[in-house]
């Protein structure tokens, strides 16, 4: 039942985006997704996941975005939800590698902000001439 609710939630969510951010479909998709999550992992685990002290910022943005979508401001609400979603799953990972499987700074130039060096396709530090 929970997997079905999550699946329908994602379907309505994506369908709402395809129909130019239809706020009713987006809100319905969000509510189905959260209800399915409760059915899959239980109410207590869902509550403890969202309301841990380090995750309160992400939770507030996610649920604030849900409320903004329900108030029929879908684009702003989706932006708030996206930021909250990223903040929720970024918490405790330590780096972008844990979330995305790649580092967004490690692109064509290969800038590594941790070491402050260039080691990408260029193969050398551009400041070295």
Automatic annotation (TrEMBL):
Domain of life: Eukaryota
Name assigned to this protein: GOT1A protein
Spans through the membrane: 12-40, 61-86
Pfam families reported in the protein's UniProt record: Got1
Function recorded in the entry: May be involved in fusion of ER-derived transport vesicles with the Golgi complex.
Regions annotated as coiled coil: none
Family: Belongs to the GOT1 family.
Protein location: Golgi apparatus membrane
Keywords of this entry: Golgi apparatus, Membrane, Transmembrane, Transmembrane helix
GO biological process: endoplasmic reticulum to Golgi vesicle-mediated transport; retrograde transport, endosome to Golgi
Gene it is expressed from: Golt1a
Record carries keyword Transmembrane helix: yes
UniProt topology in membrane: Multi-pass membrane protein
Assigned GO CC terms: cytosol; endoplasmic reticulum; Golgi membrane
Species of origin: Hirundo rustica (Barn swallow)
């Amino acid at each position: 039942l929970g997997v079905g609710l999550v699946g329908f939630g994602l379907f309505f969510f994506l369908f709402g985006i395809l129909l130019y951010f239809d706020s009713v479909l987006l809100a319905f998709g969000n509510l189905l997704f959260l209800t399915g999550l409760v059915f899959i992992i239980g109410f207590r685990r869902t509550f403890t996941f969202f309301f841990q002290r380090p995750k309160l910022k992400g939770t507030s943005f996610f649920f604030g975005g849900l409320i903004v979508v329900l108030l029929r401001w879908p684009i702003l609400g989706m932006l708030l939800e996206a930021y909250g979603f990223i903040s929720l799953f970024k918490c405790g990972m330590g780096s972008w590698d844990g979330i995305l499987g790649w580092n967004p700074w490690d692109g064509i130039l290969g800038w590594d902000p941790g070491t402050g060096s260039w080691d990408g396709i260029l193969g050398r530090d551009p400041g070295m001439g």
